[in-house]
Amino acid sequence: MNKTTVPKIEDIDKKWFVVDAENQRLGRLATEIANVLRGKNKPNFTPHLDTGDFVIVVNAEKIVVTGNKSSQKLYRRHSGRPGGMKTETFEKLQNRIPERIIEVAVKGMLPKNSLGRSLFTKLKVYTGPNHPHQAQQPEVLNIQTIPAGGK
């Protein structure tokens, strides 16, 4: 009889990865990050368990979108009060809080439940090339996507 193996929590090894977002396309980068956070790149992936790794994203302010998205893509937030909807374009949000763009893109690709919320805490996004996680000895994660300059 065949049995499905479920990895024990102590058998799951958590690694730390650093991703450089400079000249990367937003959606393609967010997809790869979400897969690593979930653990889909590992052979012991289990949908209902946290088998993923930690991801550190640096140079968040240098992320690129194609077409007219920089002036047409809207980010919305609501205060919870009547008439409290605020909208902001990609350009304005990139000037104000560039980390939020990557966070929103990755969060939308994670499960919408308690597992997704706990996975999201393993994403660390920073502007500039420096981050405070040198003690974890992160490995560089090379994302093989189409560069923003084309071909």
TrEMBL record:
Keyword Transmembrane helix found: no
Domain of life: Bacteria
Annotated keywords: Ribonucleoprotein, Ribosomal protein
Any GO BP: translation
GO cellular component terms attached to this protein's record: cytosolic large ribosomal subunit
InterPro entries for this protein: Ribosomal_uL13, Ribosomal_uL13_bac-type, Ribosomal_uL13_CS, Ribosomal_uL13_sf
Gene Ontology MF term list: mRNA binding; structural constituent of ribosome
Spans through the membrane: none
Assembly and interaction partners: Part of the 50S ribosomal subunit.
Function: This protein is one of the early assembly proteins of the 50S ribosomal subunit, although it is not seen to bind rRNA by itself. It is important during the early stages of 50S assembly.
Family: Belongs to the universal ribosomal protein uL13 family.
Protein name per its UniProtKB record: Large ribosomal subunit protein uL13
Designated gene of the protein: rplM
